[in-house]
Write a structure and sequence with these properties.
Elements (H helix, E strand, L loop, with lengths): L8 E7 L4 E6 L4 E5 L15 H4 L3 E2 L5 E4 L3 E4 H8 L5 H16 L1
Antiparallel strand pairs: 1-2, 2-3, 4-5, 5-6
């Protein structure tokens, strides 16, 4: 499991038909992130334009997936979305919820 801040994106291939981006990570893993659920909401409205969606790029040092107009998604968040079992923050919050249920 990569630690937070070790999740580095090395390549991103957007697909405007499915509004998803195939990400290749420094550890050799490939994931697909869907952005379909964000289309048309707030600042993300721009992502619904296929030509805009195709303008995605890997951000500085591979630490984000970015579009023009300062739209960025953190590499750690994208990794943890694809690998929730790796998310130490989710595990600690699940443990806290479990403790709260057992003490009630």
């Amino acid at each position: 499991m990569p630690e937070p801040l070790e999740n580095i994106i090395v390549a991103a291939t957007p697909d405007a038909d499915s509004f998803s981006v195939t990400l290749i990570w420094a550890n050799g893993v490939t994931t697909v992130s869907s952005f379909k659920k964000l289309l048309g909401t707030g600042v993300m409205k721009q992502l619904a334009d296929p030509s805009f969606f195709l303008s995605s790029r890997v951000g500085e040092y591979g630490r984000s997936l970015a579009w023009p107009n300062e739209i960025e998604f953190c590499a750690d968040a994208l990794w943890f979305e694809a690998h929730p079992e790796d998310n130490p923050f989710q595990q600690s919050s699940q443990a806290a919820r479990s403790t709260m249920r057992h003490s009630a």
